[in-house]
Specification:
Blueprint (H helix, E strand, L loop, with lengths): L21 H15 L6 E5 L1 H8 L5 H7 L2 E6 L23 E6 L3 H12 L8 E6 L5 H9 L6 E3 L2 E2 L5 H4 L4 H11 L8 H10 L25 H10 L4 H12 L37 E4 L2 E3 L5 H6 L5 H17 L4 E5 L1 H16 L2 H4 L26 E6 L5 H4 L5 H8 L6 E4 L2 H10 L11 E4 L5 H6 L4 H20 L6 H9 L1 H21 L2 H15 L3 H13 L4 H14 L5 H15 L4 H10 L12 H7 L38 H11 L6 H4 L6 E8 L5 E5 L44 H12 L5 E8 L4 H12 L5 E7 L5 H6 L4 H9 L1
Parallel strand pairs: 1-2, 1-3, 3-4, 4-5, 8-16, 9-10, 10-15, 15-16
Antiparallel strand pairs: 5-6, 7-8, 9-13, 11-12, 13-14
Helix pairs in contact: 4-5, 7-9, 12-13, 16-21, 19-21, 23-24, 23-25, 30-31
């Protein structure tokens, strides 16, 4: 039986962030069990591989929990694989022995077609009750596909039965309902000679719907020419069932005792209509796993193709899911008083949220959980200013800032994501012993690779919590320092007394954490040692600063000649096109031709998708608007605070007390974070001329109610004597000239001898919040289209600064990097052709 990740490792508590997110996880876990319990008895659960990771974030022992609720087989949906495939039946029990089969899938066309193909390919002699539950919403398109494939009648969509061929199934009656109804209306005794009936059916080579038993040759059955009404009644409606099923049914009939015939209907009377299905609390065919808490301050919707769907296909479904998630957060924590945003997708989500708020009656009565942070009680209406636990919402469209995800992340967590890949909060991990054994067996005959487990990365690991938001070279220095101290303590065990030994034993789990983190840091550390890595970083910086456009194009062409990965080439192409407002037509045509000749003409579909989305385009001949934005928002900060060469030993005392987010990108301040700083510092007003160069409109509104208690939106206007940040005080200038403490403020690593040292960023944040005269404002930053780990680290850095009284909660459609974002633009046909070639 397959197991869901992350396995035995610990999940974040979700109760120490800006708002408690543990309720969201518990509600999702409870609803999952309710969906599984819709089918009684033993069942097989077939999962869409895309939701396996999010489900693993609900419970560390979710596989065992599902087993307790009757799941005896846990499988994954694979297109082209039949239910009788050997891989599905490699372990006991076999799928043919399991009656109920439940599908949990995303509502995509491919998944609907795969489900229909498996149902159609089943053995007609095997009985299965199929159920399909879509995550997070059911769609008409998927139901239409099931109907066109002719399997909707064989599928129970959630708690409602689909259409079928046959009168009883059309009336939403399963077999048990039919049997119970027959027993209630039959005035005769049960059949005591069902074995003769079975013999009769075998003699005919199976049960024939044309001539049910008792019509014509009842003497051959030993029934004296008379067949019990119960058998005659259900025969015409159950002829499509297998013979074994009918035998079980008749056996159950014969076990019932005779009841008073006065309460029965006359022989031959028509059956009453079937009772409606039992209503359930969950929407039919839906499992609302719309939000997956990654950590105490990060929520993901796990929409892998959200950005592609919006900008290329024009599909607004991800926008609806985002608006629904925000509306649900407001139902949990109260109405968010102030809403700011930038970009076309942000404006669309704002309109959807407002419409949902007006249409939802639940928000009118539901108080925020735990009361408001501004003193409003939990019993308030939830619509007044400051009545909720989230004080502000900032909506950012990924289309507004395409530069940041195309830049290589150099934070500890970001670089691990770039090199190794973080999926659903975990990374593939192999210990040193396994890697050594694999290397020793690689040259021998029959050597097999050891299985690679996955290790969750979250705030429960005290070392990862400290390192994740630091530049990689700083994190490696601290990691080496901790490793040396652990090795020194291990060597001094001979000189320790009993009390010191007890304390050391208590710290052994922390040593294991440190060892695992060291294993994870090996691949990025090896990549950082290569000169090509630093050449790429320098070239990205040159592109953003606008230096030597011709040399940048030559560098991209050189990468193609060397056979670099396609995604790495496309990242630089998109970065160059976005910064320059497009590429000259001659250069664009030349680069397109080189890409097709180097990586195959199947990627013509990929290039067309990028051009359709505006990621690659021809320059209009005018000056790029990015130059004005770069200067006004100070996106380039002199590298006086950063490492000179990016090497492991390039740290400086200035880097221990950074004052600007640019130190996380080697001198580049991400546009998205600058927009957040602008919104919090002074609002959009002073920067309207600059914001006009970016896609979409900007807005700043207050959510309140009118005299009739109906939700309304009003433009935000700063009151006299109050700052634009809502009266919480002003912040330092956007250039970050203040010397406030930040991530990594522990300096020369003194005082870090204890293996229980926590995150310096968290300590700075807590001390900052404790020293403020007023409570910090909770800000929900929603990234529509994806966010990078480095951007999340930048927001944590801002919240750790004493002069910034804000706590950030991140909501995103998906945590991405440049590679994963561009991979959604690669057509599946191109991937298949590349794999076959």
């Amino acid at each position: 039986m397959a197991r869901l990740k992350p396995g035995k490792h610990q999940l974040p508590t979700l109760d120490t962030g800006p708002v408690p997110l543990v309720y969201i996880r518990e509600q999702a876990r409870k609803q999952l069990l309710e969906v599984v319990d819709l089918r009684r008895g033993k069942k097989a659960l077939v999962l869409d591989p895309a939701i396996s990771g999010p489900l693993g974030l609900l419970d560390t022992s979710l596989t065992d929990l599902l087993t307790e609720h009757g799941v005896v087989k846990l499988l994954y949906l694979e297109p082209g694989k039949r239910l009788d495939d050997p891989s599905y039946n490699a372990t006991e029990p076999r799928l043919s022995d399991v009656r109920s089969v439940l599908y949990l899938v995303r509502p995509t066309v491919a998944n609907a077609q795969a489900v229909a193909a498996q149902i159609k390919s089943r053995n007609k002699f095997e009985l299965h009750d199929f159920s399909v539950c879509f995550i997070p919403r059911r769609t008409i398109a998927c139901e239409r596909i099931l109907e066109e494939e002719g399997v909707l009648g064989d599928v129970v969509i959630g708690a409602s039965v689909g259409r079928s061929v046959g009168r009883w199934v059309r009336q939403r009656m399963d077999f048990e309902t039919c049997r119970t109804t027959c027993e209630e209306v039959c005035p005769h005794t049960t059949c005591d000679t069902q074995e003769s009936l079975i013999a009769e059916g075998r003699g005919r080579g199976g049960l024939s719907p044309a001539q049910p038993p008792g019509e014509g040759s009842g003497q051959e059955m030993g029934l004296g020419g008379r067949v019990p009404c119960r058998v005659r009644t259900v025969w015409a409606h159950l002829h499509w069932l297998s013979f074994a099923k009918v035998r079980v049914v008749i056996k159950k009939m014969s076990q019932r005792t005779q009841t008073d015939s006065s309460s029965r209907l006359p022989l031959g009377a028509p059956l009453p209509p079937a009772p409606p299905p039992t209503p359930v609390a969950l929407p039919a065919g839906e499992y609302c796993l719309d939000m997956v808490p990654y950590d105490d301050d990060v929520i993901s919707l796990e929409l892998d193709t959200a950005f592609y769907d919006c900008v290329c296909d024009g599909d607004s479904t991800p926008l609806y899911y985002t608006a629904a998630a925000i509306t649900r957060l407001q139902a949990l924590f109260g109405i968010i008083p102030r809403v700011q945003g930038k970009g076309p997708a942000a404006a669309a989500v704002r309109d959807m949220c407002f419409r949902m708020r007006r249409e939802s009656s639940g928000l009118l009565a539901a108080p925020p959980l735990g009361g408001g942070s501004n003193g409003a009680g939990a019993g308030g209406s939830g619509f007044g200013i400051g009545s909720g636990r989230i004080d502000r919402l900032i909506l950012l469209d990924r289309e507004v800032d395409l530069i940041t995800p195309m830049m290589t992340q150099i934070t500890f967590e970001g670089l691990i994501d770039e090199i190794t890949g973080i999926r659903h909060g975990s990374v593939p991990w192999q210990s040193k012993d396994k890697r050594a054994g694999e290397a020793g067996d690689s040259h021998g005959p029959g050597g097999s690779r050891a299985p690679v487990s996955r290790l969750p990365l979250n705030s429960t690991d005290i070392f990862f919590r400290e390192f994740r938001d630091l530049p990689f070279h700083i994190a490696i220095m601290r990691l080496q320092q901790y490793a040396l101290e652990a090795r020194r303590e291990f060597g001094d065990m001979k000189n320790k007394n009993f009390t010191e030994l007890k304390n050391y034993v208590k710290d052994v789990p922390k040593v294991y954490m440190l060892d695992r983190l060291s294993d994870i840091a090996v691949p990025p550390a090896e990549q950082v040692k290569q000169q090509a890595f630093h050449d790429r970083l320098n070239k990205e910086q040159a592109i953003v600063e606008g230096y030597e456009p011709e040399a940048n194009v030559a560098f991209i062409e050189e990468l193609m000649y060397k056979g670099a990965d396609l995604m790495e080439v496309l990242r630089l192409l998109v970065l160059l096109s976005t910064v320059g407002g497009g590429l000259p037509r001659r250069q664009l045509d030349s680069l397109r031709s080189e890409v097709l000749h180097t990586y195959g003409h199947q990627h013509l579909l990929t290039l067309n998708a990028l051009e359709k989305s505006g990621l690659l385009k021809a320059a209009p001949g005018t000056r790029s608007p990015f130059h004005s934005v770069r200067k006004a928002l100070q996106l380039i900060v002199p590298e006086q605070e950063g490492p000179a060469g990016g090497g492991a030993g390039a740290g400086s005392a200035a880097m221990d007390t950074p004052s600007d987010v640019s130190h996380l990108w080697k001198g580049y301040a991400p546009l998205s974070i600058r927009l957040v700083e602008t919104a919090l510092r002074s609002g959009w007003g002073p920067q309207l001329e600059v914001l006009a160069h970016l896609p979409g409109s900007q807005f700043d509104v207050l959510q309140t109610v009118d005299s009739n208690g109906m939700p309304v939106e009003k433009p935000y206007k700063a009151t006299a004597g109050a700052s634009a940040s809502g009266g919480l005080g002003t912040t330092s200038s956007i250039s970050g000239t203040s010397g406030g403490g930040g991530v990594g403020s522990s300096g020369s690593l003194q005082g870090t001898g204890s293996l229980g040292a926590g995150s310096s960023a968290a300590a700075a944040a807590s001390s900052s919040s404790g020293g403020q005269q007023q409570q910090a404002e909770t800000v929900l930053v929603a990234f529509i289209g994806g966010v990078t780990f480095a951007e999340i680290s930048a927001l944590r850095f801002l919240s750790s600064r004493p002069e910034w009284p804000y706590r950030f909660l991140v909501l995103t459609t998906k945590i991405v990097n440049g590679r994963t974002l561009l991979q959604t633009f690669v057509d599946p046909l191109a991937n298949e052709f590349s794999a076959s070639g």
